[in-house]
Amino acid sequence: MMETILVLGAGTPDGVGGAIALRFAKGGYHVLVTGRTLQKVEATRAAIAAQGGSAEAMSCDVTSQQDLDAVFDALAGKEMPLASVVYNAGNNAPVAFETLTAEQFESYWRVCCLGGFLAAKHAMPLLARQGRGTMLFTGASASLRGKPNFAHFSAAKGALRNLVQALAREYGPKGVHVAHIIVDGVVNGDQVKSRFGDYLDKLGEDGALDPAAIAEAFWMIHSQPRSAWTQELDLRPFKEAW
C-alpha cells in the first residue's frame, strides 16, 4: 500500500518545501503538498505529476486550527498510512529591534513555532499509534543564535528547536523519529532568486544551498534505521562562514 507524506509550507518546486515534496514522491510516496498560496503548491503538485509521481495540493495556513483540521481530515480519508510530516513553514525579514512591534514579534512566532506545535498535536498521536514514521522540521541559523535585526526570528526559531527536542525525547521511545534540520545559509530558491539575484551571483558556484541537496538530507534522515537516528543536522555551503 502506498504511504503518504505531508509537507506543510511546500511552496513552489524551486524552494526547499517543493524540493522535499519532489524527493519523497520520487521515493514512491504519495505527497500532500500544502501552503498558504494554492497556486504555488499546485505548481509543485504538477511538477510531481510530470515526473510520474503521486501528489495532491491543498491551501493551509499553519497557524489556523481549522485549516490543519481540514488537512488531517483529508489524510484520514485517503486510508494510506502516514509515513512523515515535514514542517517547513516559516517567514523571515530583518526588523530593527527599536521598530519591532509586539504584533510583528507574535506573527513570526505564530508561523515559525506555534504552527509547528499545532501540526505536531495532529501528527504525533497518529505516528505514535503506528509505532513508526518521522516528523521533520526545518530550522535556520537563527535556531542557534540571535543576530542584530533578527530578534523576532531568532526567538521563534529557537523556540521551535526546543519544541522539537522535547518531541524527540517523548516520542522516540514510541517509534517516532523526530528531527530538526538547520539550514545555515542562503538558499538558492525561487524567493532569493527573485529578490536577491545579484547577491546569489556574488556567492558564485555552490555558494548557496541547493534546495534539491537539502531535500536529500531530509530523505536520508527519514530513511535511517532506528538503531542510529539523527535528531539534529546542520547544512551549509562549503563557502559559508560559521
For the structure shown, list the relevant keywords.
alpha/beta; single chain; 242 residues; Rossmann fold; 7-stranded parallel sheet
**Which oligomerization state do the chains in this entry correspond to?**
single chain
What's the shape?
globular
CATH topology: Rossmann fold
Helix content: 40-55%
Following the backbone from N to C, one meets helices and strands in this order, namely EHEHEHEHEHEHHHE
User: Biggest sheet: strands, sense, closure?
Assistant: 7 strands, parallel
Q: Which stretches are poorly predicted, pLDDT < 50 over at least 5 residues?
A: none
Strands ordered across the widest β-sheet: 3-2-1-4-5-6-7
**Gyration radius, in Å:** 17 Å
What is the terminal-to-terminal distance?
44 Å
Please tally the helical runs, counting DSSP H or I stretches of 4 or more residues: 8
Structure, described:
The chain has a 7-stranded parallel beta sheet, with helices on both faces. It is α/β, with parallel strands linked by helices. It contains 8 helices and 7 strands. Helices cover 47% and strands 17% of the residues. It has one domain (4-235): Rossmann fold, CATH 3.40.50.720. It has helices at 16-26, 38-50, 65-78, 102-130, 151-171, 190-195, 197-203, 211-222; strands at residues 4-8, 30-35, 54-59, 82-87, 134-140, 177-183, 232-235. It is globular and about 50 Å long.
Blueprint (SSEs and pairs):
Elements: E1 4-8, H1 16-26, E2 30-35, H2 38-50, E3 54-59, H3 65-78, E4 82-87, H4 102-130, E5 134-140, H5 151-171, E6 177-183, H6 190-195, H7 197-203, H8 211-222, E7 232-235
Parallel strand pairs: 1-2, 1-4, 2-3, 4-5, 5-6, 6-7
